[in-house]
Amino acid sequence: MSAPTRKRRWLTICAISASAALVAIPADAASGGGHSPFGARDLARLAAERQQSVGVMSPSLAEEDDGNEADEIAEGAEQFAEARTAPGVVAPGAYGAAWAAMAKLSVTKGSWRHVTDRPYDSDDPRYRDYDSNSSGGAGRVTGRMAAVEADDDGYVYAGSAGGGVWRSRTGGGHWQPISDRLPSQSTGALALDGAGRLWLGTGEATTNADAYLGSGVYVLTDPHDGTFSARGRVGGDELDSTTVHHLRFGGGKVWAATSAGVWSHSTKTLSGAWKLEFAPNPDYLPGGPKAHDESAAYKNITNDIAIDPKNPGKVVLAVGWRSGDDYNGFYTKAQDGSWTRITDGMGDLPTDPDGVGNVTFARSADGSRYYALDQSPEQMNTNPDSGLEGIFVSASGSPTGPWKKIADYHQLAADGSALTSSGYMPGVQAWYNQFLTVDPSDPQHVYAGLEEVHETKDGGATWSAVGPYWNFGFPCWSIDPARQTGDCHQTTHPDQHGVAIGRYHGKGFVYVGNDGGVYRRPVDGSQDASGHATDWTSLNDGSIDTLQYYSVGVGKDLTYGGLSVTGGLQDNGQSLLRGGDKVMGSNFGGDGGDTLTDPANGCNIAEEYVYLSVQVTQNCAVNDGSWVNDPGKITSYNVAPADNATSEARFIAPLAADLKSSSTWIAGGRHVWVQTHGYAIRSGDEWKSVYDLGAGRTATAVAASGGKVYAAWCGPCNNKGFARGIAVGNADGTGWHDIALPADGTVPNRYLSGFAVDPKNADHVFLAVNGFSRHWTEGPGAGVGHVFESTDGGTTWKDISAGLPDVPANSAIVTPNGGLAVATDLGVAYRAPGRTTWQRVGSLPAVAVLQLKLGPDGTTLYAATHGRGIRSIRVRDLS
After folding, report:
1. How many CB atoms lie within 10 A of CB 561?
2. Rounded to 10 degrees, what is the CA torsion of 743, 748, 750, 752?
3. What's the pLDDT tens digit per position in 829-859?
4. Is 578 helix (H, G, I), strand (E, B) or coil?
């Protein structure tokens, strides 16, 4: 059998602001009996799909189903954000106000237990089934790292997408959280200044989907021993509710490239307001006449700042929305002090709006060279292979050039890359994956991050893919568990975001942050004959848990005793923690969406990829990989409903089991689907459509109890004509009808995110509503409230949100004692039985909780946090 290619499953997510832009793809699931290892979603398939998608992308919101995996990330971005914004625009300060309100709530008894506080092995040899990505070479992983910084004393700082900033005193590993007191746990940038202070720009700026807005910039004077606090915020609230792409220093100033223009502040005096240096379209900024325009979030995006080391007054701004806009370009100050677009003289580096997209700068320590990495909107919109315009160098050291191109995607593909298929080559996601840094001791030694890690030691004349995407497809690869990744060396997790170079015990190391956490290797490390590094080390030792869960499932472990806890993750598949495990394993690959786990048998698991692509296993997907030669030994099966094939389901689509019957499942796309074979299902044909929600509508939440089914939908789901509704019926297909929601706004015209059915009475149901209330949201039908109650099967609803912080609600669950727990973007709230007041459950940082589940005996509540792993708390401690 030829060397296999693997299916690739991503998700990422967009800054929650005015809206999120972006595009879509159907999920094409593998059948269990196929002969192509690891499913049909391999790179060759993705390449063919992307070739068909060329030209469909645009700077505005796109709704096409174009079949491009890179665009799939963008579609996830749009959908995650629209749940919090449509049909209006969220005003700055919404999350800050919500966090302040959450902090004022009384706190329940008890405390959260950290369930996933151990290493997570993505190459666990126990789970090498058809739908696993195990043996790819990434090793131990954690959640997405947006930024990394390091010093020469062995201290490393890792800024996660949603789980805050972490510190290691040992050159990586033995991590400690240092930003838990801040109102934002989303990292955009980290930077050490000349005085050794650590600067943090909050708000992840990858414009993907689960990237949350920040609360400004903070400084930690003593990063070796201190922790960030709100008192360390720089300036006022000027950068609240923005994202920060980069922080750069020069001329006694710190410069911030944000989603709302370029700002500066004195590095000596931290009080006083930030100065807006440049915004290409100031009318769209908060307070401007066009601030509530649906495109406002995209009109002032800035990416990086280059400061001339010989003349700190000479500054070049890289400005532009990645999908393209008229304002995209490079800007510098004219003699009269105004910022003007650079139109020529830059050499090979484009200056036209179509050629300037997401840009990253890097300067050599001696000031002799500047480097730049540029993704171009034109490439992204027209090139089926890559969005990368190129990597460039200014050999004069001046940010105004002249610049010379030193790499394009063809050259990087030929340097040992795993991405060599036409239609899927290096830089295909250059808008999402980018870093660039220069070895402080050698101005010609450069590391560049795209999907992979690339290195040049001769200023760009030659390159090596030192961190290939994965090891699948290379001759060295083997699925044999005894050989781990065969003769291949460990690589990094794909999708690079942050990089730093520091020293530990006198030795230089490069640290990279990506969708799998933090990795390091010696700066002058070794390579094999293919140019792949032989010395990567995963620093994800289990002391750092920034895993981004969408879901959680809990069942009894019949093999080892205790419980089996599983959950779907952003770009880290499905984690599985069984009784007695000291290391979690990964039994499904790619993105994990919703999950179902049999309470009576934790090895009966259904795992959702995207767009209702569902795989099921009845043995925890335990497999030694022998199915490669004998397909009959596959132990997981694709059972996707038909809406998966037609892409008539949301990116993360709802999936639920009936509260009274674990063998009755409900799935939601355009249709409401029911299957009654439980975990014995083997084919998508076993699903039955019991209700058609209608063309253009997709389910946002489903729930069932005793055969009564609730389904919420939206359609259109973005700001343009946003509509939502509820349908109710029976699992046998009878009695289906749309609920006539009153026009008085009793239930707001916002995204309906979850149901909680009273297990004692199926007509008693609670509804969780996402987004912000009218105070923070402009637009028709914003309404008020986040939690609503019905005692007549959904016919009428009552707002029970009084006293609950105004924060997006993601899901809810009725506890066995009759209480109600609600998962929000800032933790969990609880209303005790017979009470009308709300409490905060335990003490969590400002992290989003996307789903709540009860353990098999109902005594423990589990929370899937999107940035701090899975947590649990005893139900008896909530009252």
Report:
1. 10
2. -100
3. 999 999 999 999 999 999 999 999 999 999 9
4. coil
**Angstrom distance (rounded) from CA 355 to CA 660:** 57
3-class secondary structure, 44? helix
Q: Is 335 exposed, middle or buried (0-12, 13-18, 19+ CB in 10 A)?
A: exposed
Query: Cis before residue 87, ω within 30 degrees of 0?
Result: yes
**31 CA to centre of own chain:** 27
DSSP states of 50-85: HHHHTT---SS----B---HHHHHHHHHHHHHHHHH
In 130-235, the DSSP E strands lie at: 145-150, 156-160, 165-168, 176-177, 187-192, 198-202, 217-220
User: Which regions of 505-570 does DSSP assign to beta strands (E)?
Assistant: 507-514, 517-522, 537-538, 553-556, 563-568
Q: What is the pLDDT of residues 410-429, one digit of tens each?
A: 999 999 999 998 888 999 99
Closest by Cα among 851, 828, 862 to 655: 851
CA distance 216 to 230: 10
Helical pair 43-53 and 69-85, crossing angle rounded to 10 deg: 70
pLDDT-wise least confident of 28-32, 92-96, 521-525: 28-32
Cα separation, 776 vs 782, whole angstroms: 9
- Which tokens sit at 551? 């879901």
**Token pair 């140019």: residue:** 531
Distance CA 205, CA 645 (A): 32
Residue with tokens 């004195």: 266
Contact 376, 367 (CB under 8 A): no
Residue 405's DSSP bridge partners are 392
Nearest to 408 by CA among 374, 433, 362: 374
Q: Is the pTM of this model over 0.90?
A: yes
**What pLDDT, on a 0 to 100 scale, did the predictor assign at position 91?**
75
CA-wise closest residue to 607 among 658, 664, 551: 551
Under 8 Å between Cβ of 470 and 419: no
Within 193-289, strands assigned E span 198-202, 217-220, 244-250, 253-258, 261-266, 275-278
Question: Contact 356/320 with Cβ under 8 angstroms?
Answer: yes
Q: How far is C-alpha 132 from the chain's CA centre? A: 20
Specify the DSSP class assigned to residue 533.
B
**Separation of alpha carbons 570 and 9, rounded Å:** 9
CA-CA distance, 720 to 698, in Å (whole number)? 16
Residue with tokens 């990586």: 172
